[in-house]
Amino acid sequence: MLNETASAVLKSQPRLNTQYSLRANLILCLIAIALTLAIVAPLIMLFQTAFYDDNQHFIGLQNFVTYFANPALLSSVFNSLWISLTATVITVVLAAIYAFALTNVSIRGKGFFKAVALLPILAPSLLPSLALVYLFGKQGMIKSLLGDQSIYGPIGILISYCFWLFPAMLILMSGAFRNVDQRLIEASRSLGKGVWATHYAVTLPAVRYGLVSACLVSFTYVMTDFGIPKVIGGSFNMMALDVYKQIIGQHNMSMGAVISILLLFPAIIAFIFNRFQNHRQARYQSFQIKPYMSEKNVKLETALTIFCSVVSGFILLIIVTAVVASFVSYWPYDLSLTLSHYHFEYVDGGGWGAYFNSIKMALMSTVAGTIIIFMVALLSERFKTHPLIKNYVQMLALLPLAVPGLVLGIAYILFFNQPDNPLGVLYGTMTILVISTIIHYYTVPHLNLTDAIKQIPVQLDQAAQSLGMSKWKTFWKVYLPMSFPALCDVTVYIFVNAMTTVSAAIFLYSPNTSLAAVSVLNMDDAGDTVAAVAMSILILVTSCVVKLLHWLLTRKMMAHSQRWRTNT
Description:
By secondary structure, the protein is mostly helical. It is 73% helix and 1% strand.
């Protein structure tokens, strides 16, 4: 009887696998079509617009010639390049030393230093620029430190970018320093190499891939951000700011498309180079690494503690300045406390409606994005699908990493605002903001969930099939619990980025769908700088509360569902 049952189950497995394969291929095809409409089609429209004039007549490269013939626009290329290079060098060096201290040296207060260093990632990119105005502006409390220099210009832009980029660079460099192998350090020292020679021969090769990634990411971020130079740049122009002026100020879509394409090329080159060097790095990670921890060295630990204290102190200075400025009556003359700056109904820019719109959009993006990304990752990794469809979807999943949010926003305007496009009904709605947010931040969650699914043993699938368990039950009992930590990280990642995003949303919102981060820029434009600071603090506090609630709610759940990892 048992043999007959087992035989029936085994005979039914090919039919079930074929059935699920057809379903998986159908679902993956629908996802491929949706991603094509959300990524590829807008980018094609962007490229097409750059070669046409306002009357939709093909003019070839004339728009590019016009751009490079304009001295004012051309100067922004040089400004963007040297600001990007300078900010990259400063930030990556600071983040590398900070990461080395937290990862490989036994200094005190690591938890505090790490928490403070990651705070800027929870705030909109405009926060440091607004805070610097209160510190070093015309009415700044410590403006004398700059002497005759003005904070409005390259100095303010560089300081703001260093503050904004630091958390991302720290995360990348911390991962790089975890690849340093203790055994190689000990072998080098036992062969008579000194400390500096050892680090040059062992540590530097181990972290060089992370170092290159950090430089490429930093350079791309600075090249494609317009918020910081818009707030504190003064008359100093940059390429990303040119896009904003051409689209919002002059409604010159063709020239905006030209500059967007010019910004897209550095991002694509950086993306391709980064993927290439990541593949090379994978060759050296096939063996288990014993994390490096430096020997007891009081002088080194003291120096790095002072360094981390100075960097974290500067970060806290920026944040505390913004918090205090939002609660005082009139900086710096009347420092009495007030809540009047949080009465957003008296200022332009969206007010409390924009704040609640951001929460709504962030929640919708988090729920929809997590479900879609997890479904695509699971179908790609565990279901039998056609190789062409699978490879195409995986290519589309990686493409958003090479498309800056600014470029994506322009492409969405050109594609969804076409009169003959049936998808034009989405333009100006909350739905298009959700779609753009999910697409903009798609790649990192996809890679995170894909790695998590790859770690689940394939033998569990085979055991579930031999027991006659359905795919749905296997998903519920196996894949969901084992991918829970990655899912938690993805939800917070999407929510925080949705709350702080401004690059794509600035071109897609309507009066009814204004977002908090966008309202910060609009308030500052209208001269309501204190209200802009107050809104920035609201975004920061909201992101911090969500992170805290996420940690409290998932701690016990993860302790229960991830017990198998500890046992293993």
